[in-house]
Design goal:
single chain; 2 domains; 8 helices; mainly alpha
Length: 196
Amino acid sequence: MSLLDDPPLDLAEARARLAELRTLILRRAVLGLVLALLGAALIAFGAEKIGIPLLIGAAAAALLVGLGRDDRRRMLVRLVAQDDAWAIEEVRRTAARLVSPPERRRLAVGLRRAAESAVPRHAEFSVVDPFRATEFDERLRCLAATIADEAVPLAAAGAALCRRLLSEARLSPLYNPNLGDADLDRAIAQIESAVG
């Protein structure tokens, strides 16, 4: 399954999942803070055997907060890409962020780096398939230049699809060798249609 074959999320379920993730992140953050404060206090009073494990627990809670935030971000980007979740305020905010000048520059840089994988000296450490990059490098470079140009309108759904193309390796035909060239062609064509 590639990006464009990913079934759309049900909006009611997505809204509930976003709320659930927000609550989970907050609880983990509070737990981490309590563990850190308690662990630091115990260490300050000489109870390192109890304090250090609590600090390790605080670090684990911080890691879980990061993972939860990443899950929320990916879900929001996916909702923007499916282009029908505008009733959700967080989706509208994410959409605005995706078409902001800094994010457009990041997307353009990512597309240029993917295109550079076609050049042998750049392909050595790239995770993009050099043969696939060679076939699509001109379109990727053109798309990068167009997205970087703030005078050219960019639909949020196209920016979100571009973000997913560059960051979701399992579903992206740029990175996943099990997905065909036709998948990459379709994804690039859909992003191209969102520009201009």
